[in-house]
TrEMBL record, chain A:
This is 2Fe-2S iron-sulfur cluster-binding protein. SUPFAM superfamilies: 2Fe-2S ferredoxin-like, CO dehydrogenase ISP C-domain like. The lineage of its organism: Bacteria, Bacillati, Actinomycetota, Actinomycetes, Kitasatosporales. It comes from Streptomyces tauricus. Transmembrane segments: none annotated. Residues 10-86 form the 2Fe-2S ferredoxin-type domain.
TrEMBL record, chain B:
Residues 28-140 form the Aldehyde oxidase/xanthine dehydrogenase a/b hammerhead domain. InterPro entries: Ald_Oxase/Xan_DH_a/b (IPR000674), Ald_Oxase/Xan_DH_a/b_sf (IPR036856), Ald_Oxase/xanthine_DH-like (IPR016208), AldOxase/xan_DH_MoCoBD1 (IPR008274), AldOxase/xan_DH_MoCoBD2 (IPR046867), AldOxase/xan_DH_Mopterin-bd_sf (IPR037165). This is Xanthine dehydrogenase family protein molybdopterin-binding subunit. Keywords: Molybdenum, Oxidoreductase. The keyword Oxidoreductase applies.
């Protein structure tokens, strides 16, 4: 008969990219190591393992988090999105396409974290969150223009030692423009739909 | 049998923008780096580093650790396999003894590897490594790098001889109406590639297999074969994707430790450096102290030039940061003296780091030129133009091409240099003082023998195999374009495979020589294959393969001064009350040979320039003279430029094809950082009237210096 796992291990079910994964983890196992070492999802990178570089950035409930400072056992019940879950099948996310087209990377090791971060930056900005360089932070001011300086500030948790920042900023701006256009389209269609329903 | 076609394409791929061939894998997370290749029965090794700076290991208390859950082995000097270090490696140097781990009880620096703990999981290995008690007999150490050191001595380095001398320096200085005599310092700097060093080793059917992250698999394979006394053919090293290198990803302690553990345990073992361990084990750029003395006539023509550079190395390995080498290329004078010296201290071994020699050397020399321009009342660009040498100042050899004036001309036009008031401290915007600065750049151009194989496949595609490394440079994509042009086929019919020691000897990704060296071999193999195919319209099932070896062709290159050149421009804003320095914009214009892929080349240049921002303002590893170790050895304590530190940085290039290279390439990996810190420091002077001769230009230094206008 199989013996019970030692008490320093627990079974957890992680909801990653819309799929549930049940595994038994050492309580010390970070979400990052659970992804990379246990689930063979190596797209999330380990750059420093201490929350300083951003290479392991994933989305937890659509907000950015560094997976190296998150214990796997504490991630149960969260909606986890990794780089493997950003594209829609073969269709790259607008952020991925912009990084590819504008060469927003060199060695590529910080790239999954940059892309996850950028996806959330665009959402956070559209939702009206200010940054440290936002001039008008009154709630009623609305989202500030997503200028290069806003992008630089909001993306500064993700180090790129190759120094691809110039094209990273351009890629995030391009993806944000596409996202804003899509939102406007949806809003317009929603209005038409409401009109038709009325 | 099938038919194939070449020669159907009129438009060359070289020179047109091409996204990275592995780009989709990189943006989706599918690209697997060294620590991401799965192995069954994989064990995890965790290095234990010395906590003392100098002394002897008196005991390693491994018994309690071996009893911990999951622990498989503790390797240390008392039980590790022996290695042979009596050889000269691929780079013409004996190995850094730092890689010969666990061979003796001596500790020559803080963070010296003293043991490897191997366990079933990384959590178990880490806990056991942290629990391992090592006793030392500690000895007094000296880690203080001063402006002068009585034990300093001269040795030749990668940049050439230790000392070059012509003319009577003191006489020419005395006869010069305008002189500069200044000392510049640069701190200890660390590569900090985003991907930590990682290697997995295993024995497979009598062959040593190593999956690694490195700048040259043949380099690592050859050294592992030497260290472990193996037939080179029985060592296979692969390194497909590399998360940055910058000079640090050669042969290091982790690979050797992994091979030892795989040998002892007869199972795959992976060893990954932690970020903190990288600060001790991955090499770094030595701090430098440089003195520059310049003497000029009233028109600014140099009569005397002295550039001396002092750097440090460890007590176990001789490596010199040849900062004074840059003066041997840039400027001539009737009296011209350069000297590189080094002092041995109880510190880890330094190594090559992006533009070794040129990066710190150009900071000193190009700052001194700016000081001379100020004293002469001559525009800094005009001063450099007046001192353009006709031939190599030391060698007397002709330059292959030297398009530095064209870089300055184009850069000045685009940057708006003509509108600049040369007087410092005149521009103010609110709390900011604004200034602009410029500097020249150069970097050595070379090629090394390489081999390649080009195969026409039966399905009409082509496979090129070359032991290149793409550490982020875009080499894989550049070689695809080059092969496609040589074959005269579209790029989507060419697959380039790299990073595998079985592909045969080739240059490493280093010295800005990789892509040029590999392109030469790829062009030769692919060109000959196209000629062969023209004679035969059928391809057998196994394909047709042509191999090349550029040893003879590279060896036949005429002796010339071969360098790339560039002009750097920076605009800064300085707040002297907070000490904050912001780079507002940068422009670099380069003459760096034929540009293969403008999309990725621009990133190489701007990436180097951003390293220059980081070098000028942020990077500084501070060693505690009491403990001998670094303060804050991580990415919080050692700041590298983040996105918010970097403005719009632009790079462009002028026509500059190397006439002696089959593709016209020079090499672009390093020149972007050269001169960049000097341009920023010169801009800070222009903003504030204060010369900052010590890097980085920290807020406390700016506050202390204040404005002087």
């Amino acid at each position: 008969m199989a013996t019970a796992p030692p008490s320093t291990y627990s079974a957890v079910t992680l909801n990653i990219n819309g799929e549930k994964h049940t595994l038994t983890v050492d309580h010390r196992t970070t979400l990052l190591d659970a992804l990379r070492e246990r689930l063979d999802m190596t797209g999330t990178k380990k750059g420093c393992d201490q929350g300083q570089c951003g290479a392991c950035t994933v989305l937890l409930d659509k907000r950015r988090a560094v997976a190296c400072l998150q214990l796997a056992v504490a991630a149960e019940g969260r909606e986890i999105t990794t780089i493997e879950g950003v594209a829609e099948g073969d269709q790259l996310h607008a952020v991925q396409q912009a990084f590819l087209d504008l060469d927003g990377y060199q060695c590529g090791y910080c790239t999954p974290g940059q892309i996850c971060s950028a996806v959330a930056v665009i959402e956070e900005h559209a939702a009206g969150w200010p940054s440290a360089v936002t001039d008008d932070v009154r709630p009623e001011a609305g989202p500030p223009p997503l200028t290069p300086d806003e992008i630089r500030e909001r993306m500064s948790g993700n180090l790129c030692r190759c120094g691809a920042y110039v094209s990273i900023v351009q890629a995030v701006a391009r993806a944000a423009e596409a996202d804003a256009a899509a939102r406007a389209d949806r809003a317009e269609q929603g209005t038409e739909h409401e009109g038709a329903a009325a | 049998m099938t038919t194939t076609t070449t020669g159907l394409r009129a438009v060359p791929a070289v020179g047109t923008a091409h996204t990275r061939v592995e780009g989709r894998d990189k943006v989706t997370g599918a690209a697997r780096y060294a620590a991401e290749i799965p192995f069954t029965e994989l064990a995890h090794g965790w290095l234990v580093l010395s906590t003392v700076t100098r002394g002897r290991i008196s005991s390693v208390e491994d018994a309690p650790v071996l009893a911990m859950p999951g622990v498989l082995a503790v390797l240390h000097h008392g039980n590790a396999p022996r290695v042979d270090t009596d050889y000269v490696g691929m780079l013409g140097m004996p190995p850094d003894p730092t890689i010969a781990v666990f061979q003796h009880d001596r500790v020559p620096h803080a963070g010296w590897p003293v043991a490897l703990v191997v366990a079933e999981t990384s959590e178990q290995a880490r806990e056991a490594a942290e629990a391992l008690v090592v006793h030392y007999e500690e000895e007094a150490h000296d880690v203080t790098f001063a402006k002068e050191h009585p034990d300093a001595y001269s040795i030749p380095g990668p940049g050439g001889p230790a000392v070059t001398e012509k003319g009577d320096l003191e006489a020419e200085l005395a006869a010069s109406p305008v002189t500069v005599d200044a000392v510049y310092t640069t701190p200890e700097e660390h590569h900090n590639s985003m991907e930590p060093h990682a290697a997995t080793a295993l024995w497979d059917g009598g062959r040593l297999e190593v999956v690694d992250s490195n700048q040259g698999t043949i380099w690592v394979a050859a050294e592992l074969a030497s260290l472990f006394s193996l037939d080179p053919a029985s060592v296979h090293v692969r390194s497909e994707h590399v998360g940055g290198g910058f000079g640090s990803k050669g042969v290091r302690a982790h690979q050797v430790a992994a091979v030892m553990a795989a040998t002892v345990l007869s199972r795959p073992v992976r060893v990954v450096m932690t970020r903190r361990q990288m600060f001790s084990l991955a090499g770094y750029r030595s701090p430098t102290t440089q003195r520059v003395r310049l003497g000029a006539d009233a028109e600014g023509r140099l009569r005397a030039l002295e550039h001396s550079c002092l750097s440090l190395t460890s007590t176990v390995h001789e490596f010199i940061e040849s900062g004074a080498g840059v003066a041997r290329v840039m400027y001539d004078a009737p009296a011209h003296h350069t000297a590189n010296r080094v002092v041995r201290l109880d510190v880890p071994s330094p190594t090559f780091m992006r533009a070794p020699g040129e990066a710190p050397g150009s900071f000193a020399l190009e700052s001194a030129l700016d000081e001379l321009a100020e004293k002469l009342g001559i525009d800094p660009i005009e001063l450099r133009t007046r001192n353009e040498p006709a031939v190599g100042p030391v060698s007397g050899l002709p330059f292959s091409t030297r398009n530095l004036p064209a870089c300055f001309e184009e850069g000045a036009r685009r940057f708006g240099w003509a509108d600049r008031d040369p007087r410092p401290g005149l521009r103010r915007e609110g709390r900011w003082l604004i200034g602009t600065g410029t500097a020249a750049a150069s970097f050595f151009v070379g090629a090394m023998p390489s081999t390649a194989a080009a195969t026409a496949e039966a399905d009409g595609t082509f496979t090129v195999r070359i032991n290149a490394a793409d550490i982020g440079t875009g080499a894989r994509t550049a070689l695809t374009l080059i092969a496609a042009d040589a074959l005269e086929v579209p790029t989507d019919r060419v697959r380039v495979r790299i990073g595998d020691s079985d592909f045969g000897p080739a240059m490493i990704a280093g010295g800005s020589m990789g892509t040029r060296s590999w392109a030469w071999a790829v062009t030769a193999a692919a060109g000959e294959l196209r000629e062969r195919l023209a004679l035969s319209d059928t391809i057998p099932p196994e394909g047709i393969t042509v191999r090349s070896d550029t040893t003879a062709a590279v060896g036949a290159l005429a002796q010339k001064e071969r360098h790339s050149f560039g002009a750097q421009f920076a605009e800064v804003a300085v707040d002297v009350s907070t000490g904050e320095v912001r780079v507002r914009r940068m422009l670099g214009v380069f003459a760096a040979g034929r540009i293969i892929n403008p999309l990725t080349a621009r990133g190489q240049f701007t990436g180097g320039m951003i390293w220059g921002i980081s070098m000028a303002l942020h990077e500084e590893a501070v060693r505690d003279r009491n403990t001998g170790a670094l303060y804050g050895a991580d990415l919080a304590g050692y700041h590298v430029a983040s996105n918010a530190d970097v403005p719009l940085v632009e790079a462009d290039w002028v026509d500059d094809t190397d006439p002696d290279d089959p593709v016209g390439i020079k090499g672009i990996g390093e020149i972007g950082i050269v001169g960049a810190a000097a341009a920023i420091a010169n801009a800070v002077w222009h903003a504030t009237g204060v010369r900052h001769r010590d890097l980085p230009i920290r807020p406390d230094r700016v506050i202390t210096a204040g404005p002087h206008v």
